[in-house]
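quick one
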Amino acid sequence: MAKARIAVLISGRGSNLQALIDACADPDYPAEISLVISNRPKAQGLERAGNAGITREIVNHKDFQTREDFEAALNHALKTAKVDFICLAGFMRVLTATFASDWRGRLINIHPSLLPSFEGLHVHERTIDSGVKLAGCTVHFVSADVDAGPIIGQAAVPVQPGDDADKLAARILVEEHRLYPACLRLLIEGKARLHGGIVIYDGTVTASGSLINPPAG
Ligand code: GRF
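structure w/ 5-O-phosphono-beta-D-ribofuranosylamine:
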C-alpha cells in the first residue's frame, strides 16, 4: 500500500517532528513525511528536517497581512506537496475555522496535557499549580476551537513531588514522542476514526494496565 503523505508544521525545537521522522524510517510505518513547514525561519526543527533529507519550507506569518493570506500560502505548499495528513508539532499559530474545516479529519495536533484539562498556554505550570496527580499529553483532531477537537489518544504520567514545569515537561515529552507516531498510525490504518464528533477505535485497539498516583498497596 502507498504510504500516506504527511506534512509536519513546526515553530521551534521539533522534537515531536524528530519522533515522526524516526517512526517513518521504519519500512513498516504507513507514512512518509513529504514536507516540513515552519512559520519561524530559525526553528531548530528545520535542521532536523534537513538532516533527514525532507523538503522544508518557511511560511513566515510576519510576511502576510492577514491570517487568511498566511493560510493561503500554507495551503499552496500543502497542496503542491499533495499531503494526505497534517501534523501540528509545536506549531504556535492559531489556525482559522475555515482552515480546520477544509482539512477536517486530516489535521491533528499534540498538546502536553490530558485534554480537556489545561488547554492553551503555560500548561505545565498550571498543571502543577492545580495539584492534579496525573498529567500527560493528548493527540487530537484540530477543530475551530483551540485544543478542543476530538481526542485520538492520550498518555498519562505521574506528577512527582518536587516537580517544576521543566521536569514535568520532560517527563511528558517522552510520552509525546511515543504517542504521536502511534496515533498517526491508527488514523492512517483506519483503526481510529471520527464518529459522531468523537474518535472511536476498532476492535484491535485495546489498552492495558493502569497508572495510580500515589501507588496503591
Ligand atoms: C510539545 O510539548 C507539544 O506538545 C506542544 O509544543 C511542544 C513542542 O515541542 N504543542 P517540540 O517542538 O516538538 O520539541
